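Appendix B. Raw example, untouched.
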Amino acid sequence: MSLDGYLDCPSVSRLRLSNDDDFDRVDAVRADSDAILVGAGTLRNDNPRLLVRAAARRQQRVAAGRTPSPLKVTLTATGKLDPEADFFAVGDVEKLVYCPSGTAAELRCRFAGLAEIVDAGDPVDLRSVSEDLRARGVERLMVEGGGTVHTQFLTGDLADELQLVVAPLFVGDSRARRFVDDGRFPWNPDRRARLAEVRPIGDVVLLRYALSSRFAG
């Protein structure tokens, strides 16, 4: 995020906040994960591929009996998803879409052969989503965004670790997307998150916070 807490800028299609070294660090985190989750808004705005980029990391996963890239997961409240988005069209890995009960049947028709559609209640319940992923063998879930999903996981006390990278710039426009929305967060003046690591990466800085007893360090 920017120094003033934004994820993007409304005047450009995508604001580059990080640098190449940190993108490589994120790729390593992806390669160590069982699944990567983003919200439907991130799919619409950024069209991410959500694949491990480095060939050596993909090969290491395959050698360990895993798929080249982790399982892809998204959440949608409205069902407004593009079947031609890179999330669905790129990468020979399993894709899951968690959606409200009322949209499940229609999405199963639209995305037949592209993704598994999972009825996640109405509204979508993230604790149930997390439990379903665990039942599918997901032990390490990487949540990449966007802000709505960040807010839901954090206010729901469902995150074990927060990796926050701060870029040395200001956006200065309240129309831009913030890292999180308003909410009642478990970490507050009476319960402070534990800072586990501070690491400069070129001109950005990584802050890692332990949010639960399950934090792996």
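End of appendix B.
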